[in-house]
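Chapter review: from sequence to fold.
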Amino acid sequence: MRNVLVTGGAGFIGSNFIRYLLRKEPGVRIINLDALTYAGHMENLTDLPDQDRHVFVEGNICDRDLICQLLHQYDIDTVVHFAAETHVDRSILGPEQFVQTNVIGTFTLLESTRRYWLEEEPMGVEKVRFHHISTDEVYGSLESDASPFSETTPYAPNSPYAASKASSDHLVRSYAHTYGLPVTITNCSNNYGPYQFPEKFIPLMILNALEGRQIPVYGDGNQIRDWLYVDDHCEAILVVLLGGMPGETYNIGGNTQPTNFSRSRFQVRG
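The token string follows.
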């Protein structure tokens, strides 16, 4: 792993992963591709460790010409694909953008890397990896008395966002089995930590509490959510990149499953 294309690297989890990777892997150069939509900000990339090993490119993952240019220009051997539309409520109001980014964008990346790595063969197939970041939302809802999701839990997406991520998961898996593209997938639970967009659950609770406003709770607040600190997620991704088996899926969770209501009460007290 020498030249890593990180998509969505100006967003919450992507920017944290870039910081983590620059700290942990001194021989890696990162090419950061981000469209700088509402959730991606250059402020998330200030004061990076070893800034000289980070190259930022503003662009869209649906732009195949740009993807192909970056793969060739920087001899990309690893893709870590964070770029996605991610908010459930936004997907209900405007599902088309979720399909475009999460499905078509992922397809564009897969097809571009397939042609570069497998047809042009600039490096051995054992030296390349496409890693796809997904979500536990693809498994649906978890009942209070149910066991945590596992890698064998059937898919049951309940929102346009979850359906678009499930679709992208299936595309990634198909490229492994059909073409032999070396891929791995991780399905993570809800992240929290630095640089998170304020519409997300935990920062929204904190900001409302600090400003003395009402704490919004979706539905009856009894939805079960697992919570994962973003640096722990980044560590797990690196473990999979360095030691995961091509074609495999790995779930990443924090082993904490409160209801939204109990979590919101905790944040108010804090």
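Two observations follow directly from the output. The domain at 3-195+228-255 is CATH 3.40.50.720 (Rossmann fold). The first strand starts at residue 3 and ends at 7.
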